[in-house]
Design goal:
- The complex is a heterodimer of chains A (about 950) and B (about 270).
- Chain A is of the alpha+beta class.
- Helices cover about 25% and strands about 20% of the residues of chain A.
- Chain A has five domains: about 70 residues, Beta-grasp domain (Ubiquitin-like (UB roll)), CATH 3.10.20; about 80 residues, [2Fe-2S]-binding domain (DNA polymerase, domain 1), CATH 1.10.150; about 200 residues, Aldehyde oxidase/xanthine dehydrogenase, a/b hammerhead (Aldehyde Oxidoreductase, domain 3), CATH 3.90.1170; about 190 residues, Aldehyde oxidase/xanthine dehydrogenase, molybdopterin binding domain (Aldehyde Oxidoreductase, domain 4, 2-Layer Sandwich); about 140 residues, Aldehyde oxidase/xanthine dehydrogenase, molybdopterin binding domain (Aldehyde Oxidoreductase, domain 4), CATH 3.30.365.10.
- Chain A has 25 helices and 33 strands.
- In chain A, strands 8-10-6-19-16-17-18 form a seven-stranded mixed beta sheet, sandwiched between helices.
- With about 270 residues, chain B is α+β, with helices and mostly antiparallel strands.
- In chain B, the strands form three sheets. Chain B has a five-stranded antiparallel beta sheet.
- The N and C termini of chain B lie far apart (about 55 Å).
- In chain B, helix 10 packs across helix 11.
- Classes of the chains: A alpha+beta (about 950), B alpha+beta (about 270).
- Chains A and B meet through strand 4, helix 23 and helix 25 of A and strand 1, helix 5 and helix 11 of B.
Chain lengths: ~950, ~270
């Protein structure tokens, strides 16, 4: 027995003393002590206080806690009784996806218990052991200031964030995110918190080969083990061919995979799924499975994939559900057609050519680029290479499924609940009414949870066993078996005149989608569609080809292909300015688009179909560039005082989208409840960014009712109506606008009902604060309570419920510019980002403090992509750094010393209350801003990310 | 996989319980860490966390004796620990990890990306070791590392370090939390120059040829030093995920040159 004190109470446990302390705490119900790194001692989700000192509980053995006092994050305060520290974290906006928020609150509480007036360095020190991917660290410093002020004076003095739209009470105001109390206090929130006691565990046997046929899977020894319930292989599972991208149906992605394939196409590919009563039994059974592989030659780069005679990643038959070419039979006759290959099914033509490992392609442009280059005074041409990087959400992919009342219930950490339902329906053959997807809180998505990577197999396991099943990726599986950012080779040719005008731009993008084509077209397409429209240029051309390879799979990643396209284009533009001998800023200002400029280039850049040619809408781009240049003192040369350290500055203009006009679709239903409060049922998937809060705020301002009288229920396929999901920066614009429509419809119904009850004209009714209808004619007032009470009295006209559906052809594009000042050590190649300024036009920031944190978080993430992050594969395609320490995510030590996020005030005519998207665009600027700054510092063009010291030294000619 | 845990009350019990299939566990940041070979191979773990007398810091005769269970954070917070060792402890970027990791554990792990060993090596630290037979000995850290197999059943009780020396260090890693590709230290003590480094996937190195080169010609050029390292046949670096062979050799060269330059500046 191990005896200790947990949160002030004496406890004893009958546990193996070599187990981890965290396991013991879970036995005690302290589930907010989480695990993000499989006991790597990195992320800090498992932080507790052991005898008054913060430690990683996964690195302490249970037996070592004998006689100790342990404090866990859930001891601080519950959601109804928050502590000063918890409240300050919420108020500062850092409680976003929040998987680590309870641990961060514990650390900050501990810090203030040691010192009520901690310095910035002390805050940095205490947070050095905790990984925050969503919000960055900057507003933790703000939170520390707020705590100090609250403890000292009882109130905050420091401004948390600028506020917008003074005529509104909720939109644009600093206000706690509505799910933040639940998250920061460590209450049940994530999938793992809802698992039933009788749940089985599933593990997956993964391929050690990058490319091989699976000729035989002998599961007999595994199945003979006590506790093993089922082993699922390619030879006994669903034959459905589908893909994992959670995007509009029919998808602009080839259907090219099954639940388990008879051919593995990457190291880490699924070979078998083992369901057992316990995790230990499942792992033990996995080790007993004997697989007969037939290894095949593999390809790992686009260069290898495009080579003549290259091994084919997919060599089965091709089918088209629409638009099949006339020569399809002849084409198929050239493929092996081996049954083990499966097939590739295009929903409509994507210019794929699997005989040459091409998953999809697109080509197009406007004007005449060849002529434009001839007319140019200077032309630059360069190729920019980007690496394969991982999202590293703190909460690794997880799914819990069970049967209930003849239905499949799926608890999912997903950005796309309705797409999860559709794909599970395909795999199981169940109709969608028999499947209920419950999106819990999501502990970080960043695009990786737009792919259906674990839900298909977990739900299928429940479907065939009838048992509740839990599946949870290890951190290594996140790297080798999830989606990642597509490695891309972006070739740019750009010509310009001496006056700085750009005459022509050519982009050739070769993208590596890995073994499967989920998002094969759409992600790389963004490298052109969210970059070329930045330029006022009549001659632009692009050639986009996406190759299959045998690397770990690629897929959706925040920013899609835009960060890579922006990297190539803005670096090339800086090179062109340099070659022309003109200032880069002047060139940017001369060539960027402005409101009203017709974007002809978009015609060929639809997602698998013709795009919408629209004029530039609201645009704060110029203001962002000028503001940032002023902040960073553009043109002023900085000296370090050390001859080895050279300082330089750079920036990049950026854009993104706000969902996909003509493709995305969102719905909401607003209900007036019996006491006059409001419930909004939304199809939206809040992944921690504050979408539910946005829905509550717009509803509040439309219905003139306080936010705390509004409850938003979202991400539940039973209770909400269809929403395409949270991706492509669509949440605020689409789901927010659907809520606007629903709330407006409900407002009209309330006004109509009030007029009916008062016996007056509808035109004389107006909604007034707080939740009343006022007659402009008679001065009579009916509260919402009075209205609904009468309407539902049995003699009234019934419950007031209003749906809202939103689709649009309008495009509200966020713009911005990101600025960097770096110091480069020309002797060692080290780079320090001294300053980073993110200046963005996000329309009306509905949650301004959360918006700033998302800008910090995405910027820091992209600084990581630019300088540190890289999945390294060996010659056999094995990822050799599939852990957090070796992979290299930025933490508080890597944050720039001077880090600022600035919102440019633009009121967009199409966004909900003028809002556009915010977070995703912030991934786009770091690489070119830092790359151009490195050139400014030491004269080398960094054409490959991550821009490591070794690569810089090579460019400087210091090493081979 | 370990199935037993022994909480040793004192060093004698810890040493007495040590068998070939048992392993000591100090702070736990290595042994309990994901993928640890030590935990996988051992059947018994002997925790030193509650071992009396292993976490003291004592100052005597210009020398500081640090208990092997002193954590990195204790080193940083102690008034007596010299600045060079505090700097090395700070190389471990995570405060939470520093609250756990110990000086003795870091030495015993002898990792090629060690945080502390280059500084301790250059400083001429002496390890106070007790063996199963009851014998205790003081062993120079360089000798301990050279003959670590001899000490597999021994317990590092404390580490003695000089406090009156000049020592500078430099660490290179992808991010602050990443494993270092190179950590190097240089010290002036006992009338001589002492240089050591931890080179990832190579090991702990005593840069004696470089020491000699600097001693022979204090004004030797950086290019000459880099050339020396590049041509050194006894240095077994290779291309790996931490960098190319040439990068590592170049980095060692410019770093030791710079450390030497810094020492000369401090000497003045």
């Amino acid at each position: 027995m191990i005896s200790c004190t947990i949160n002030g109470k004496k406890r004893s446990f009958d546990i193996d003393p070599t187990k981890r302390l965290r396991e013991m705490l879970l036995m005690n119900g302290n589930f907010a002590v989480r695990d993000s790194d499989d006991a790597e001692g990195f992320c800090g989700s498992d932080t507790v206080l052991l005898d008054g000192t913060p430690v990683f509980s996964n690195l302490v053995l249970a037996g070592e806690a004998e006689g100790c006092e342990i404090i866990t994050p859930d001891s601080l305060g519950d959601s109804m009784h928050l502590t000063v520290v918890q409240q300050a974290l919420i108020d500062a906006g850092v409680v976003q996806s929040a998987y680590n928020a309870p641990a961060a609150a514990l650390l900050m509480t501990w810090l203030f218990s040691q010192n009520p007036d901690p310095s910035r360095e002390e805050v940095k020190d205490v947070l050095s052991g905790i990984f925050i991917r969503d919000a960055g660290y900057e507003h933790y410093y703000l939170a520390a200031e707020l705590i100090k002020e609250k403890l000292a004076t009882g109130e905050y003095k420091t401004e948390i964030a600028p506020e917008f739209r003074p005529e509104l009470k909720a939109v644009g105001k600093v206000m706690p995110k509505i799910d933040a109390p639940q998250l920061v206090s460590g209450e049940r929130a994530f999938v793992e918190d809802y698992v039933d006691d009788d749940t089985c565990y599933m593990v997956v046997l993964r391929s050690p080969y990058a490319h091989a046929y699976v000729n035989k899977v002998d599961t007999s020894k595994a199945e003979a083990l006590p506790g093993v319930i089922k082993v699922i292989t390619a030879y006994n599972c669903s034959d459905a061919t589908y893909m994992s991208a959670g995007q509009g149906n029919p998808e602009p992605s080839p259907h090219d995979r099954k639940l388990l394939n008879k051919k593995v196409r990457h190291v880490g590919d699924r070979v078998a799924a083992i369901v057992a009563e316990t995790l230990e039994e499942a792992i033990k059974a996995r080790d007993l499975i004997e697989v007969e592989y037939e290894p095949l030659e593999a390809v790992f780069t686009v260069e290898e994939a495009m080579a003549e005679g290259a091994p084919l990643v997919h060599n089965g038959k091709v089918q088209y559900n629409a638009g099949a070419p006339d020569d399809l039979d002849e084409y198929n006759s050239k493929l092996s057609g081996d049954e083990r290959e499966g097939k590739v099914v295009y929903q409509f033509p994507l210019h794929g050519d699997i005989l040459h490992n091409v998953a999809a392609a697109n080509h197009g442009g406007i004007g005449d680029v060849d002529k434009a280059f001839e007319e140019a005074d200077a032309v630059v041409e360069a190729t920019y290479q980007t690496s394969q990087i991982q999202h590293t959400p703190l909460e690794t992919h997880i799914c819990f499924s069970k049967l209930e009342n003849g239905r499949l219930i799926i608890y999912a950490s997903t950005q796309v609940p309705y797409h999860v339902r559709r794909i599970v329906s395909w795999v199981t053959g169940l109709s969608e009414n028999k499947i209920h997807v419950i999106k819990t809180r999501v502990g970080g998505g960043y695009g990786s949870k737009q792919d259906i990577l674990v839900e298909d197999l977990t739900a299928y396991a429940t479907f065939v066993t009838g048992r509740p099943v839990l599946y949870h990726n290890t951190r290594e599986e996140e790297f080798i078996a999830n989606s990642t950012r597509h490695p891309m080779r972006v070739h740019v040719k750009m010509g310009g005149k001496k006056d700085g005008s750009i005459t022509g731009i050519y982009m050739k993008v070769d993208a590596n989608t890995g073994p499967y084509g989920n998002h094969a077209l759409t992600v790389p397409m963004n490298s052109c569609s969210k970059t070329l429209p930045l330029f006022k240029c009549d001659n632009m051309k692009y050639d986009l080809t996406i190759y299959y390879t045998n690397t770990p799979p690629a897929g959706a990643y925040q920013g899609y292909g835009t960060p890579k396209g922006t990297y190539g284009l803005m670096m090339a533009m800086c090179e062109l300015a340099d070659k022309l001998g003109i200032d880069y800023k002047d060139m940017v200002l001369k060539n960027h688009v402005e409101e009203g400029y017709m974007l002809e280039i978009l015609k060929g850049l639809g997602e698998g179909r013709e795009g919408n040619v629209v004029p530039v809408g609201s645009c704060g781009l110029r203001e962002a560039v000028e503001k940032g240049c002023e902040m960073i003192e553009w043109g002023k040369r900085e000296e370090s005082g050390d001859p080895d350290w050279k300082i330089g500055k750079g920036f990049a203009m950026i854009m993104q989208g706000s969902g996909l006009p003509g493709l995305d679709h969102a719905n909401a239903v607003a209900k007036l409840e019996m006491d006059g409060s409001i419930i909004v049922l939304s199809g939206a998937a809040d992944i921690g960014t504050g979408l539910d809060t946005i829905i509550a705020k717009v509803t509040s301002d439309i219905l003139c009712i306080p936010v705390d009288k509004i409850t938003v229920i979202s991400g539940d396929t039973d209770s909400g109506a269809f929403d395409t999901g949270s991706y492509a920066s669509s949440g605020t614009f689409f789901s927010g606008n659907a809520a606007v429509v629903a709330a407006t419809n409900l407002k009209n119904k309330i006004l109509d009902e009030a007029a009916y009850q008062l016996g007056e004209e509808l035109d004389d009714m107006e909604i007034t604060w707080p939740g009343e209808v006022h007659s402009k004619k008679t001065g009579k007032v009916l509260s919402f309570y009075e209205i609904i009470h009468t309407s539902t009295s049995g003699t009234g006209r019934g419950h007031l419920i209003a749906p809202g559906s939103f689709t649009t052809a309008a495009s509200s594009v966020p713009y911005g510019a990101h600025f960097a000042q770096v110091a480069v050590n020309v002797k060692t190649g080290e780079v320090k980002v001294q300053k980073f300024y993110a200046v963005q036009d996000a329309g009306t920031p509905i949650n301004p403090e959360a918006a700033l944190c998302q800008m910090y978080g995405a910027s820091l993430k992209s600084i990581g992509h630019t300088l540190y992050e890289d999945m390294i594969l060996d010659k056999d395609g094995r990822c050799v750094n599939a852990n957090m320490t070796d992979y290299g995510v930025p933490m508080i030590s890597e944050q720039p010393d001077d880090f600022k996020a600035v919102l440019i005030d633009v009121n967009d005519p199409d966004g909900p209350f003028g809002a556009k998207s915010i977070s995703e665009i912030a991934c786009n600027g770091a690489a070119p801003a830092i790359g151009n700054a490195i050139h400014d510092a030491c004269g080398v063009w960094m054409r490959s990310w991550p821009m490591t010291p070794e690569k810089i030294l090579r460019e400087l000619g210091k090493i081979k | 996989m370990a199935t037993q845990l022994l909480m040793a009350k004192d060093p004698a019990e810890a040493i007495g319980s040590k068998t070939a299939s048992a392993a000591f566990i100090a702070g736990g940041t290595e042994v309990n860490r994901l993928g640890s070979d030590i935990a996988a191979k051992a059947d018994t773990l002997i925790s030193l966390k509650k071992c009396s007398g292993l976490a003291d810091i004592r100052k005597e005769d210009g020398c500081l004796t640090i208990g092997s269970m002193c954590t990195f954070q204790q080193l940083i917070e102690s008034d007596d620990v010299p600045a060079y060792l505090k700097e090395a402890a700070h190389f471990m970027a995570s405060r939470t990890k520093r609250n756990m990791a110990t000086i003795g554990g870091n030495i015993a792990a002898a990792r090629s990306d060690s945080y502390l060993i280059p500084a301790l090596h250059a400083a001429g630290a002496v390890l106070n070791i007790c063996c199963k037979e009851g014998e205790c000995a003081s062993v120079a850290i360089a000798d301990y590392l050279d003959e670590q197999d001899k000490y597999t059943d021994a317990l590092i009780v404390s580490v003695s370090v000089p406090t009156d020396i000049v020592l500078v260090s430099k660490r290179y890693a992808n991010t602050a939390q990443s494993h270092a590709v190179l950590t190097a230290s240089a010290a002036l003590r006992d009338g001589g120059l002492h240089m050591a480094g931890a080179v990832k996937n190579v090991g702990i190195l005593h840069f004696c040829d470089l020491e000699k080169a600097f001693m022979d010609d204090p004004d030797i050029s950086e290019d000459a030093i880099v050339k020396m390292v590049r041509e050194c046949t006894g240095l077994h670096t290779s291309d790996d995920m931490f960098g190319s062979d040439d990068y590592k050799r170049y980095l060692i060269g410019v770093t030791v040159y710079d450390l030497h330059r810094q020492l000369r500046g401090k000497e003045v």
